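> @MW can you paste both from yesterday?
MW: sure, first one:
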Amino acid sequence: MKQIVPSFCSSSSLLISLLPAIFLCISPTQSRLSVKIGSDVLSQICAQTEDTDSCLKALQSDPRTDSTDLYGLAQVSINLANATATETKTKIKSQLGQTTDPNLHDQYSQCLDSYDNAIGKINYANDRWSIKDFLALEAASSDCLIDIDTCKDVTTPASPFLPEQNNKSHLLCNIVSTIAKRLAAGNN
């Protein structure tokens, strides 16, 4: 019985002495991800996109942006990208069913495929976000850009809504990619 008590006491002392070191190893990563986003960080992020003003407007349109950290901002941007891509896909489907022009029909069909792929990439990005796999999040959002560019390449002025929707969707996937790069680099 005497041997159990001293070994328990020494184990407890060792554990207590190691706790500060354990918290020091964990805390920096957690604190970097939980720092509230400031307007300077938003400006830095948006300056790396193709349209700074539209980026700021898009991110600030979501009320969560004011009180979130970089990790939360990634979720905001993923949600915005998903909503816009889904809206675009719905409009494409509607136009596809209404057009009698064979060229427009082909364009809408190709764009519908592109947006199906883009939405799949956004959903995958969201899955990667949830497990904090920031490199895969960045890769998925970059792939989303490629899918949207594919639709941009086949779009003509005969499709009045699609160029604007493509630009909006492209910007939002670009925002996700930019934030993912910052998260992967450990910057906030």
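MW: second:
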Amino acid sequence: MTASRVDKYVDNLIFALRMRNVPGKEIGQIVAEVEAHVAESGEDPAEAFGRPREYARTWARNAGHRQSRPELVRSVLGIVAAGAGGSLLGVGVIGTATGESVWRLHPVLAVLAGIIMMASGAFALPKTDHVIDPRTGQEFERISRSGRRAMLITGAAVVAWLIAATVLAVVLG
């Protein structure tokens, strides 16, 4: 069993647990148990626990984690603001490329407004608690890697949408 394979499994597990709203303290305990089992048995984590998404699903279902009402409202507002900002950013980029105004705004202002709305949407999202390794009392190093992964996925989606919107604007004239 290679360390990189275990690290990849744990990264995917942390990401899947975060997406299912499992608290950081419990994520730390789950990850510690997975790593301890793999270290003792030498078994592949996917064989021992199943795919990370499925394993995370069982933990979230068994623990019954749900967002509180204020967290849910913040999440919805953050997602709506980020989506509206991304749309405004995309339309502003298209307006800049074609030289047309966007809802009577200069295209550059639309781009700036879109960026500001996307940033405010990101700040509106509820903050998550830290994932602490119960064996050391320190935060897991790989958390930053899973955060970068989430940002990369989101950024790639925004860039793909901007490219598709620009191509459609140029083709449709």
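> thanks! The chain has a mean pLDDT of 80.
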